[in-house]
Design brief:
alpha+beta, 4 strands, four-stranded antiparallel sheet, globular
Length: 64
């Protein structure tokens, strides 16, 4: 099992396509760790975080 790094100080980013409100989008922390890409719901920043490998995140971004 991999250890999830501490992301409490992560700098979260939103898509430029999220519009003015930006309330209905995903956020990710691109520089949180070289081993994971943390992703969360922008409406609940204190909620759960999904952790993807960089390769899986890149594949997702290419697909959408």
């Amino acid at each position: 099992m991999a250890t999830i790094p501490d992301i409490s100080r992560a700098v979260w980013a939103k898509s430029s396509y999220s519009g003015n409100g930006g309330d209905n989008c995903l956020e990710w922390a691109p520089s949180a760790s070289p081993d994971i890409v943390p992703v969360r719901d922008s409406k609940t920043p204190g909620g759960p975080v999904l952790a993807f490998s960089p390769a899986a995140w890149a594949a997702f971004v290419r697909a959408v």
